[in-house]
């Protein structure tokens, strides 16, 4: 069996596949690690078990995961040795890691070096790998990087107009994220359209608490909205998105804020939460906007406007567009956001059928209007399957 791990700062997501990846045997999430009100949801087939307990740290979370997998009541394995390989998500591989790799000491050293690029994410990913190595000694671990898919972005699109030595000597460039999701969704979209991915120009909108917009031409990433860090590009749940860097100088020099305070604003207090003053959850923001909350309506308007601009820019960058694809939590579930975004994109040949838009999650991925020149799709992402696929391929090659 193949186990996939997605280790965050306060959560652990796992999925267990059959050795041929044909079946998801079990999955789960352990949430609120290190916080009050911790819990674990463990799913097998159509049944879900919730366990409520405080989870002190990641080691305790992994222990609970193993208890669930080995449980005589809800478990699916009888011994850890049944798991033949483990795949991990890592957010940032810098320029060091351009593809998925089997973990060894050198890889771990490289991962730690990349933590300066993603201080909120990589340390958690590393903790997950270390715990897996502790619990499964001798079992191969594979790490799959969100940044790897975007290594094909050409230099003119990923370089910043800073002193060139900063870019070459210190790895300062546009890296892009959610690449594992984008890789899966772009191929799935091509399959739905029944066209070779090499012939398609697509904009992939990964809209969740984190947001990435990707230009994918011929199956390769050619531009992406998130850059060096993980808060630029689109406004997100708590992250600011693009803004004038002069604001940072103003906050520090004029308002007397520390750099730590500014960093907290950019990553944790901005986006939907900062604009709405209510929530980082688009569902709650949309509901409040519909009830007349003006700040929530502003948050929705800003999000939709910035997304339209990004789609239009990428259509121009690729000299045309064949498909617009929505994925992730907001992209897959919010018919309202899809409607608002697409209603302003008729100039690109984008138009959706409102009835199809409402039932997109029920096996109707193509929500295009009959006369639309550009296909609009809703494609559920499956990062775990991509991680499992890479894990299986690399471990088989090593064997």
TrEMBL record:
PROSITE patterns (alphabetical): ACETATE_KINASE_1, ACETATE_KINASE_2
GO cellular component terms given for this protein: cytoplasm
Entry note: cofactor: Mg(2+). Can also accept Mn(2+).
One Pfam family this sequence matches: Acetate_kinase
Highest taxon above the source species: Bacteria
Site feature location: Transition state stabilizer: 178, 239
Catalytic residues as annotated in Swiss-Prot or TrEMBL: 146 (proton donor/acceptor)
GO process terms (BP): acetate metabolic process; acetyl-CoA biosynthetic process
Subunit field text: Homodimer.
Protein name per its UniProtKB record: Acetate kinase
Originating species: Tianweitania populi
Gene expressing this chain: ackA
